[in-house]
Amino acid sequence: xxxxxxxxxxxxxxxxxxxxxxxxxxxxxxxxxxxxxxxxxxxxxxxxxxxxxxxxxxxxxxxxxxxxxxxxxxxxxxxxxxxxxxxxxxxxxxxxxxxxxxxxxxxxxxxxxxxxxxxxxxxxxxxxxxxxxxxxxxxxxxxxxxxxxxxxxxxxxxxxxxxxxxxxxxxxxxxxxxxxxxxxxxxxxxxxxxxxxxxxxxxxxxxxxxxxxxxxxxxxxxxxxxxxxxxxxxxxxxxxxxxxxxxxxxxxxxxxxxxxxxxxxxxxxxxxxxxxxxxxxxxxxxxxxxxxxxxxxxxxxxxxxxxxxxxxxxxxxxxxxxxxxxxxxxxxxxxxxxxxxxxxxxxxxxxxxxxxxxxxxxxxxxxxxxxxxxxxxxxxxxxxxxxxxxxx
Length: 392
Fold this sequence. Notes:
By secondary structure, the chain is an alpha+beta fold. 67% of the residues lie in helices and 9% in strands.
């Protein structure tokens, strides 16, 4: 049983049961030795057998769960058979029925436990009556003991059920705490990425932009002087570095989601015509009821996909479509570009050209989603991401 605040109660009950069995069995042994009747040796053997079989009950927990119920039933049946043989020769052994009551209620299934208690009570009453005659105490005593055992057994089961419910509630609380901690870590990571994006924009990007402007001014001032080709090469290199830096900034610092994912996607598409003459059509609902980490991931995926289209596809038209059905979201990005073979791009772990696509695949996998890339050289590209928000 899992550890809980009620564990000491169950340990105490089990310890009390073991002590009761030992006391009753000890009483039977003492009576056998004192009376020294002809059946004493057989009675002592049965007492030892009862003690050994009772001790074997501790091994039932090690039996595989599929066979544990059958093993427990066989164990209690063997214990009962030994008790019946013992009570047939030693009337005092009838008192062993009281610990057996608790064993029946604990080991046997819900319906069979009370039935076994009633049957054992009848056996004890008959045994006492045959040995010493039927009396009111000999009849009423075992039935009163059976009633008390039933009440205690019901209380034990109620405590066990409450303990199981408490353990389930505790497990749910722990799982909720872990999810909350994961969400807080994710929010911290997003905040750090946004901070880095701002720092890069204010330092590296601004510096590269200034270098590009100065080199361009130097090129225009004297386009025929010696070494001008080095100036042009330096300006082109600075322009490429600035473009890469701005791409990093776009991926690390997505547009705000305060007015919804649909509006953010439309803003992303609106920047398309200004970059390489790309026209982006966006089809997305205004209101999207998805967890914020899912919305943020979808926006980043769309950002990365559009950046790939701008840099590699040489496309003139692209489309962004978002479909939401309950907790399930499907994001599709299409273009009429040159296309490519997606297999090597997804498998390559070092090539810089495939970094954007692999980043999309990693983000999708983090949320347990599915990524499908349909493309071929000369036939454009369709990228489809499906995420179940209830499992993210």
